[in-house]
Design a protein that fits this description.
The complex is a heterotetramer. By secondary structure, chain A is mostly helical. Chain A has seven helices and no strands. Chain A folds into three domains: 80 residues, NADH-ubiquinone/plastoquinone oxidoreductase chain 6, subunit NuoJ (Four Helix Bundle (Hemerythrin (Met), subunit A)), CATH 1.20.120; 25 residues; 38 residues. Among the domains of chain B are: 298 residues, no CATH class; 76 residues. A two-stranded antiparallel ribbon of chain B has the order 1-2. Classes of the chains: A mainly alpha, B mainly alpha, C mainly alpha, D mainly alpha.
């Protein structure tokens, strides 16, 4: 049952990802990307990480993707000239290279056995992924990184506003 | 005043260099006299500090007079560490005293001499201060490498100052000659230092500190010590103008006269003497090297004196006289009379600087004339110069009662009676003393007596030098007289303060000094203390004999250049070949030209045209062309398309991952 | 549901004082920027300068603390290594701001509050990168730095080149950090932790993990990700384009600060937890060092744009520094830090000189435009020559000593051919560095091509003088700095 | 416990590779950026898998940070695209080829 769910959701994620790079229309790409995000969110749920799944939907699919789509609309980029894209697809050297690489990586990494388990596991699997656990980590151990994230976001906003400002 | 302030001594001149060197041109435009205030002030402050430290040193008991101030680490490479540090002991303070003192006087003198010169005033004082910095580093350094830095520094300044008026080709050539000759010596010197380091390193002593090296000198085999000593000495012959590398010094007179006084008479050329005295432990281990030093010194003294007899250029006479007097110093060192040799360094600094400065006043007064045949009768016109020069002359020839007498006597006596001395060397030295008296009085008579042989035009302008020039003359004249009395030998009822002051540094005294400072004991075969004073009467008899020879020399000069002035010409005419031999300085320059320079030149010409241009340049050019081609080809990979960059990134990752996953 | 009660970890705020000061200054500068109309424009720059100087002072004051320690639950490490790198980065920030104060006359944008705020924010990122004890913090810091630098690269809004450089740098940078993250993920998967010290402990107690594929893949991907920031071949392609397009003051900042921080992260990550994997990464470093210096030097040979030439040369210098990983001795690792410090001074100095000159009121970049500069501006020519000599590795400059330590240590470890290659590379590099000197002093200045330097502020004079002095002092008296670097490497172990 | 982690990881690797493929194939800057986001998503998946295997919240916090970074990068990236679009009227990355060699 679990495996079936994984294969369905994973297949959906992969298909969405492929469609992102294969669709000619930028808006379509962005929408397929949203699909990919949602499929990933389901995968996270299957991995018992409810909080991350919620974030994936709200932040990724909800905020970032909407932002991108808004930018696409603003720039009025419906149809980019993609002739070269077709050509390079046909020439296929990248595809060959990449299929090869994917096979290697998937065989080498994906299907290799997991490491020795970390010794930090008092929590039960059910509690894993609950907001308590994460919140505790964020505000106790990860406080420095958390604060630095705020600095980073400030910097990003400052930079973005400056660059996009018309003057 | 604490000994830790010793770093102030070199710092002041260095500050002077920086200020005058970087901002000199602007300062000169605004206020020319500020330049010499800075320069002289820097050296003066150094002198004051030296004086303070010197008296503090005197206040200590004799066996505690050693202080090593390690300032900061300089080079450290694995086990090998060299620091910048200054050593205070009687020898270094003795040298530093007169280097800064005489240096200060010559700085002051330079104000008058260079004020009207067209060259860059600040450049001159920058070089002069740089020289002071290097020389102080040389004498105060506590290790071979720092000393070598100073050694090279003084060589550089000497070169810069000889060719100070570089627009004149002859000056540039003279500078080049000095530079190349010194390089030859420095090469051997550096080889000596490296040998020392490598062989001590083989015993686990990776240090170039004087005290460490000397304390472990016993680890070296005697042959090796001899080789090292001879290499060092070869370096010293270049710096201190001895056979075979003395040839650059007379040509070095092309520089401004204060430079000749400071660098080529009083201080730099005595660096070799200082160095051998500093390395007395090593030299004491090698009697053969000592003999070589003594013999070369004596022969240089004689050879230079014989050349000086016929020279007509006033500065050339003094230059050869310097070579000759330096020969005396080396003779003293070679026979084991280190203190006497250094005492002569001191007195020589006073009177030779004075002689050069006097000559400078004469040249200045005569409007640049240097040929003594065109001088004469200046006694009336330039009284201060005349009297001070007279005093210096009496001092240099060793006239009883003057400074040179006591120092020269010390050397002669040790040569006669010392463990390493010999009668032949003594005889050469006495003969040289007589010749010195002759040529020095020849100079005095030709310059200051009789009628003036200069043209009317020049005669009108002859005048006494300004105050800044004459005051240093007078100070030095006083020192030339009284400076000798600090070293009155015991046979004349004195107590020879100089020797007593320096004794801790030399021979067995060094051993005690190091031990008292906490260092390891010296285990070397030091020469026994100079032979016990056999009999004062013999010494006094010898003194008398020498004085007689000197008087004979003066008398001969009087007869030939005052009374019967036609005789020299007839003499020269009757012995034309011998006269020409002397006049042309024994054809040594020509000999070097034939034996060394011409073959070298043809070899280097071949290397240039045959090897360099065709083979090396061809290789270099084709290599350069090859790399340029590579560059142009490779440049194309930077295509400007961002996705190609991403591909390059991916390929890199892919290759690495594939290698680690599947190949290894 | 139980209530959440957080107990904040014991935190040493003194250890992060420079970062706090920098963030505060950045915010103040932004505030002042809002009231731009009311105040003199230069107030912004001087506020930023004052803040960075305060941060530098904080580094000096906090440097006296004894012993290495970790704060913020192990996220921030406070040891000699952090001190050294924080010092270097703060000096880079101060120098960059000094250069920017003068460079602002070319481009109005540089005078804005955003510019200085972004420089300070990226400085915060750099410092956290060098002091991070946890890969999470390391990643966030790297992104903080990168995002600011992306924006700063595109700061010449009226120049297409600047925007293009920002685009390329941004796309490749994001691409590279994805790889870095994947590497972190694998390391996390293999060792069960993201804390550097815990990873080190885990690897030490489970040596069989060393041949585990996840760890090896993590190592490789991580080296690729950080190698991108230090422009290691073949991850270097962005460097010349981004350096050329960016404002010159930022190019100097990128070439020194980003590289110093990224090298710090690489040293920390490679040498602390992954030291037992030496047999794996030495080969990568060997090949990367060789390729990096060769590619950088050879392409720099045929450049005519001074910024681009310096960009390629900075690739080559990364190659020299990588030798320290290959050699592996303690002295070699100290040599890397020493070289980073010298490199910071000489490179920022060279870019400052480039930023100082203009031609007909415009910036210029062609090397041939330097003709006759040495005589027109003797002081500037002298300073530039010192930097170039140091870059070329000629004594008595710090560049020489840095190369000397790295090369001799690599030789001592037996990498003869690599050192031979490095020597050949140094000779090649001499050609293009000295070419600039030759052009400055031996080519007459053409009449119509008047390069001038106008409005020299005291700030830039101080910056150039400080950089020159530092380069020379590090060349003549290297022992102090080497022992400082050695101590900081020692505290890392 | 070990429920299909290999499958998740293989999925993550393939997703990452598809993202990388998109980055080097598509010319539209925004799509290139979307592909980078796909790669980050793959990384997130890997982190969650490892986090669960290791029973630690560290990986989850990393995922949150990655999301924040993705947001920040989106802001800066889109600002750069807008800047370039205003100048040239296109965001086809092959058109930006001033800086080369």
């Amino acid at each position: 049952m679990g495996l079936l769910a994984i294969i369905i959701c994973g297949g959906a994620a992969l298909a969405c990802a492929l469609l992102v790079i294969l669709s000619r229309n930028t808006v379509h790409s962005a929408l397929w990307m949203v699909g990919n995000c949602l499929a990933l969110a389901v995968l996270f749920l299957l991995l018992n990480s409810q909080f991350i799944a919620i974030l994936q939907v709200i932040v990724y699919a909800g905020a970032i993707m909407m932002f991108i789509i808004y930018a696409i609309m603003m720039l009025n980029l419906r149809e980019a000239g993609e002739d070269e894209f077709r050509k390079s697809l046909l020439s296929g050297r990248f595809i060959v290279l990449f299929l090869f690489m994917i096979c290697l990586l998937a065989l080498g990494l994906g299907l290799s056995p997991m490491a020795l388990k970390g010794e930090m596991g008092p929590h039960s699997l059910a509690k894993f992924g609950e907001v308590n656990l994460i919140a505790n980590y964020i505000f106790v151990q990860g406080i420095a990184a958390f604060e630095l994230v705020s600095v980073m976001l400030t910097a990003a906003v400052v930079g973005a506003v400056f660059l996009a400002r018309r003057d | 005043m604490k000994f830790d302030l010793v770093w102030l001594i070199p710092i002041f001149p260095l500050a002077g260099v920086l200020i005058n060197g970087l901002l000199g041109r602007r300062i000169e435009q605004k206020n020319k006299s500020l330049v010499h205030w800075i320069a002289c002030g820097a050296v003066g402050l150094s002198f004051v500090v030296t004086l303070g430290l010197f008296f503090k040193l005197l206040g200590l008991p004799a066996d505690k007079r050693l202080y090593d101030f390690a300032w900061f680490p300089w080079i450290s490479s694995g086990v090998f560490h060299v620091g910048v540090g200054y050593q205070i002991d009687p020898l270094s303070m003795f040298m530093c005293m007169f280097v800064t003192g005489v240096g200060f006087l010559i700085h002051v003198y330079s104000i008058g001499y260079m004020w009207h010169d067209e060259g860059s005033y600040s450049r001159y004082f920058t070089y002069l201060n740089l020289f002071m910095f290097s020389m102080i580093t040389l004498v105060l350094a506590d290790n071979f490498l720092l000393m070598f830095l100073g050694w090279e520094g003084v060589g550089l300044c000497s070169y810069l100052l000889i060719s100070y008026w570089f627009s004149d080709l002859a000056n540039a050539v003279a500078g080049k000659k000095a530079f190349v000759t010194n390089r030859v010596g420095d090469f051997f010197f550096a080889v000596g230092i490296l040998l020392l380091l490598v062989h001590l390193g083989a015993h686990g002593i990776w240090s170039l500190n004087f005290s460490v090296v000397f304390a472990h000198a016993n680890l070296l085999s005697p042959h090796l010590v001899t080789i090292i000593c001879l290499l060092f000495f070869l370096g010293c012959t270049a710096k201190s103008a001895q056979i075979p590398l003395y040839i650059w010094l007379p040509d070095a007179m092309a520089g401004p006269t204060p430079v000749s006084a400071l660098i080529h008479a009083a201080t730099m050329v005595t660096a070799g003497v200082y160095f051998i005295a500093r390395c007395n432990v090593l030299y004491s281990m090698s009697p053969f090297a000592m003999e070589v030093v003594a013999t070369v010194g004596a022969l240089s003294a004689l050879l230079a004196a014989s050349i000086a007899v016929t020279q007509n250029d006033i500065k050339k006479v003094l230059a050869y006289s310097t070579v000759s007097q330096l020969g005396y110093m080396f003779l003293g060192l070679g026979v084991g009379a280190f203190a006497a040799g250094l005492f002569h360094v001191l007195t020589h600094a006073f009177f030779k600087a004075l002689l050069f400065m006097g000559a400078g006043c004469v040249i200045h007064g005569m409007g640049g004339e240097q040929d003594m045949r065109n001088m004469g009768g200046l006694r009336k016109r330039m009284p201060v110069t005349f009297y001070t020069m007279m005093i210096a002359t009496l001092a240099v020839i060793g006239f009883p009662g003057f400074a040179g007498f006591f120092s020269k006597d010390g050397i002669l006596w040790e040569t006669f009676s010392g463990a390493h001395g010999s009668y032949i060397l003594w005889l050469i030295a006495v003969l040289t003393a007589a010749m010195t008296a002759f040529y020095m009085f020849r100079l005095i008579f030709m310059t200051f007596f009789n009628e003036c042989r200069a043209s009317e035009e020049v005669q009108k302008h002859i005048h006494e030098a300004p105050k800044t020039m004459t005051v240093p003359l007078m100070v030095l004249a006083a020192l030339s007289i009284f400076g000798g009395y600090i070293g009155v030998p015991e046979s004349l009822g004195g107590s020879n303060l100089v020797e007593r002051f320096l004794r801790p540094v030399f021979g067995l005294g060094k051993d005690k000094l190091l031990q008292s400072a906490g260092g390891p004991g010296l285990i070397h075969r030091a020469v026994s203390e100079t032979a016990a004073h056999q009999s004062f009467s013999t010494e006094i008899q010898l003194m008398f004999l020498t004085a007689m020879m000197v008087l004979a020399g003066i008398f001969a000069a009087y007869m030939l250049y005052m009374k019967k002035r036609s005789v020299p010409e007839t003499l020269a005419a009757n012995n034309p070949s011998f006269y020409r031999l002397l006049l042309n300085k024994w054809y040594v320059d020509e000999l070097y030209e034939k034996v060394f320079i011409n073959p070298l030149r043809s070899i280097s010409f071949f290397l240039w045209k045959g090897i360099d241009v065709v083979v090396i340049d061809g290789m270099v050019n084709s290599t350069a062309a090859f790399f340029m081609k590579c560059g142009s080809a490779w440049k194309a990979s930077q295509s400007g398309y961002v996705q190609r960059y991403a591909v390059s990134f991916l390929v890199g990752v892919f290759v690495l991952i594939a290698y680690y996953m599947y190949v290894r | 549901m139980e209530t959440l009660n957080f107990i904040l970890p014991p935190s040493n705020y003194v250890a992060v004082m420079p970062q706090i000061v920098l963030v505060a200054t950045a915010l103040i500068v932004l505030m002042i920027g809002i009231f731009k109309k009311l105040v003199n424009a230069s107030v912004i720059g001087y506020t930023a300068l004052a803040g960075s100087l305060v941060a530098l002072t904080c580094v000096f004051l906090s440097g006296q603390q004894a012993g290495p320690s970790a704060t913020f639950a192990g996220m921030v490490l406070n040891d000699g290594f952090s001190f050294f790198l924080t010092l270097v980065i703060c000096m880079i920030i101060v120098l960059t701001i000094l250069v920017s104060l003068n460079y602002g006359r070319f481009f109005e944008n540089i005078k804005s509050g955003e510019y200085y705020a972004l420089v300070l924010f990226s400085g915060v990122g750099m410092i956290f990168m060098a002091t991070a004890g946890n890969l999470i913090l390391l990643f966030v810091a790297l992104e903080t730095m990168s995002i600011c630098i992306y924006a700063l690269t595109g700061f010449h809004k009226d120049q297409l080149r600047s925007g293009e450089a920002a685009l390329k740098y941004f796309l490749l940078g994001a691409f590279g950090s994805a790889f870095l993250l994947y590497g972190f993920a694998f390391i996390y998967g293999a060792t069960g932790s993201l804390d550097i010290i815990k990873i080190a402990g885990f690897i030490k107690s489970h040596p069989q993990i060393l041949h585990f594929k996840f760890l090896v893949a993590g190592l490789v991907l991580m080296i690729a990700g950080i190698g991108f920031k230090i422009s290691m071949v073949p991850f270097h392609m962005w460097t010349p384009d981004a350096y050329e397009g960016a404002p010159t003051s930022i190019t100097g900042f990128m070439a020194t600060g980003v590289k110093a921080a990224a090298f710090a992260a690489l040293i920390r990550v490679i040498l602390v937890p992954l030291a037992p994997m030496e047999h794996s990464w030495v080969t990568i470093m060997w090949v990367a060092a060789f390729l990096t210096m060769t590619v950088g030097n050879i392409i720099a040979l045929v450049q005519d744009n001074i910024k681009r030439m310096l960009a390629y040369s900075s690739i080559a210098h990364a190659g020299y520094i990588l030798l320290g990983f290959v050699a592996g001795t303690g002295l070699a690792q100290a040599g890397m830090l020493f070289y980073l410090m010298v490199y910071a001074f000489m490179n920022i100095g060279a870019f400052a000189v480039v930023a100082l000159l203009c031609k007909k009121g415009e910036e210029f970049n062609s090397i041939s435009d330097f003709a006759g500069l040495g005589f027109k501006y003797p002081a500037l020519g002298l300073v530039m020559s010192v930097f170039l000599f140091s870059l070329a590795g000629l004594p008595p400059t710090g560049g020489f000593m840095g190369k000397f330590y790295l090369f001799t240590q690599a030789l001592r470890s037996g990498y003869i051919w690599l050192v031979v290659a490095a020597g050949v590379n140094s000779v090649i590099s001499m050609y293009y560095y000295l070419r600039v000197v030759v052009i400055m002093y031996f080519k007459p200045q053409p009449a119509e091509n008047a390069i001038v330097l106008n409005s020299v502020s005291p700030g830039i004079v101080i910056a150039l003088a400080a950089a020159t002095t530092a380069v020379l002092i590090m060349g003549i008296f290297p022992s102090y700095f080497l022992s400082l670097a050695g101590n900081s490497i020692f505290s890392l172990m | 416990m070990n429920d299909y982690q290999s499958v998740y990881l293989a999925l993550s690797v393939i997703l990452f590779s598809i993202g990388a493929l998109g980055v080097i194939l598509r010319k539209d800057a925004i799509v290139v950026f979307l592909c980078i986001e796909i790669m980050l998503g793959a990384v997130n998946l890997a982190f969650v898998v490892f986090s669960r295997a290791n029973q630690s919240a560290e990986g989850l916090f990393m995922v949150m940070c990655i999301m924040a970074v993705a947001g920040a990068e989106a802001a800066i990236g889109l600002a750069i695209f807008v800047l370039l679009y205003r100048k040239t009227g296109t965001i086809n990355i092959d058109k930006f080829n001033l800086l080369k060699w």
